[in-house]
Amino acid sequence: MRGLRCPSCGLVTATWSLACSRCGRPGLEEHELSDRGTVVAFTVLSVPGEEFLNDAPYAYVVVELDGGGRVTGWMPSVRSAHDLSIGDTVRFASSYKPGVQFTKIEPTGVG
Amino acid sequence: MRETWVVGAASNRYGKMVETAREAATRVSLQAILDAGLEPKQIGHTFVANCFGLAEHQAHVGPLINNGLGIPEVPSVTLESACSSSSAALHEAFVQVSGGFVDAALVVGAERLGQLDTLSATSHFAIAADYSFETKNGATFPGLYATLASAYRDAHHTKPEMFGSIAIKNHANAARNPHAHFQKEITMETYLASPMIASPLRLYDCCPFSDGAAAVVVAAKEIMRRPASEPLVVRASARAGAVTDMQDRPDLLGLPSTRLAAAKAFRQAHLEPKDIDFLEVHDCFTIAEVLALEDLGFVPRGTAARESEAGLTARDGKLPVNPSGGLKAKGHPVGATGAGQVVEIFEQVNGRAKGREVPRTQTALAHNVGATGGSCSVHIFSRR
pTM to 2 decimals? Predict the structure, then answer.
């Protein structure tokens, strides 16, 4: 996934913009975002909007990407608040819908 | 700048409206103008707040309202700032009156979504988020505030009962407010048993979709020789913005636009939080009331949920918050909400808030947030 990086202050963002939301300088550069990161906040929605009508319950997550930048997305595999915790690691998943989708990275080895 | 007053206020009962937003807006506008002891023709400008007028196939509603008030020659403009639309309208009215452009201005907010089902209403609300980067990724309005609530709970180790106490308090206040959508008290059992909408937000953490209309009249002190009601002196009218997207906020434990608007407002008014007797804050969800109290500077960060449970914000507490019942229980007719907060302050000051009076009414603050904090208004009022 492509994002933007501010050459002045280093802010990395996934949101479309012409100028940096932190330092105000115009002229952001394209930046390759990491495909994995850590959940910093999330909810599991039982009452969706029209476009996710057939997908609830699912998680909506804010993810801090490795290497900077945050992205929000949805996780169809998380159907209960017990299935996810702040601090869990996730990666981008391919999706049949236009939005950003994440999936959990299950810990490998002996748990 | 001229000293500027809120001189009249009126609201209908929030809930389900049979009449259109335009009719309800016109009705409360006339009430507010007469409440001020003025005539419609003394209004120099009308500021209309309406977010979802297109759900009624009606844009450009201001001239229709003015026509209904018998003042078709008066200019009007409709403002949209999501849930903070009518406080944004109040700010513009304040600018015009205090700046001497007009002597009196009408601020009216109205919304009607009751004709839509929950799914369609949820989708309408979600339009005010960032469609491309939030809604398309699965967000709803409750979902976005739930995300903030999850970060708050994780950082401050709160319990559901703390948020439940806010819902119970606001329902108890609304039960004594004839303008309120919900006029029933709830118990902790009801709160805890209510279904999850977006974890950790239960049904009773969420405001309802309400129809409603509210209006206030703003006038220069110098034209109000004998005000019909006790006016509110506008001590501060401040607005601020902030990064809208959740994904661009370094800190999810508050709304930066509230902090900015509050700092401006307290500076304008030469007041501090300790000088405020009671508040109407933007509690679209219980977490929003918690964040508001912290961001406005009334309690240290991380403590508002606990303090609320301990009774700080009850009507008879040290700092009464949302004596009207708030968005949570009085209701949230988006475009009317900010004006409705000022109606409550006006009624408290004028002794009309029977059964839900707060003990001190010298100085009050109204806090109104647009969406998840992309916009925020803070107004401070005091008695003459």
Answer: 0.97
- The complex's ipTM? 0.94
Of B133, B147, B245, the CB nearest to A60: B147
| A27 and A68, same domain (yes or no) | no
Q: Where on the phi/psi map is residue B82: left (φ > 0), alpha (ψ -120 to 50), or beta?
A: left
**What's the rounded Cα separation, in Å, for the pair B283 and B322?**
9
- Does B85 fall in a domain? yes
A57 and A86 housed in the same domain: yes
B68 domain residue, yes or no:
yes
Residues of chain B above pLDDT 90, percent = 90
Domain interval for residue B69: 4-115+209-223
What is the reported pLDDT for A111?
Answer: 41
d(CA A35, nearest CA chain B) in Å: 15
Please list every residue in chain A whose beta carbon sits closer than 8 Å to the beta carbon of residue B158: none
Residues A21 and A40 placed together within one structural domain of the fold: no
Q: Is A7 on the interface with B (CB under 8 A)?
A: no
Q: Is B375 helix (H, G, I), strand (E, B) or coil?
A: strand
Whether residue B124 lies in the annotated active site: no
Pick B247's closest partner by Cβ from A45, A72, A86. Answer: A72
Tokens encoding A69 = 């930048």
- What is the per-residue pLDDT for A109? 55
Residue A50 near chain B (CB below 8 Å): yes
The active-site residue, picked from B332, B367, B376, B379, is B332
Q: Is B332 a catalytic residue?
A: yes
Query: Starting at the edge strand that comes first in sequence, how are the strands of the sheet with A29-32 ordered?
Result: A12-13, A2-5, A29-32
Domain identity same for A47 and A101? yes
Domain assignment present for B175: no
- Per-residue confidence band for A96, with pLDDT thresholds at 50, 70 and 90: confident
Instruction: Report the number of distinct structural domains present in chain A.
Output: 2
**Domain tally, chain B:** 1
Asked if residue B253 lies in contact with residue B155, where contact means CB atoms within 8 angstroms, the answer is yes
